[in-house]
Amino acid sequence: MALPKSDQRYEAGDAWLADCSAHPALIRPAWDSEALAPIVSGGRWLAAEAQLATRYPMVVRIPAEHRGPVLADPEMDKLWWLVPLDAAEELADVRQLVVRPPGWCLRCPPTGWQMDGRMWITRPDGSGRLTDPAVLAAAFGPGGYRLPAEAS
Q: Is residue 3 a contact partner of residue 13, using CB atoms and an 8 Å limit?
């Protein structure tokens, strides 16, 4: 069964995600053949990995406007937040997260489609917005993420 043609709502996110690959021209053909596209971290983002079953509440602790793309794989019990390239040091003390190094391959579905059980909880929107590591670390704290006092 062929995938539906790209929905315009997801086109910007798909284009951004493909452009994150060292070989962008290979991404859409992978999706068209119903395969997850291998996108190597370190070009534009790193992947911060956590267990899905016990860490999903952390996704909703971060308001949507402060959350970058989040990919889930229920079968593997994994969540991946796309974070800035300098996030590893800031997240090093968050035991529930493993920041994958540059060169690590994240197999991604297109932004508007679930594939091989993987789905975007928060889709890439084409803006390049990533989850701020300070916000992600705060979400894993006992009280969760809170807006700074001056933003209230």
A: no
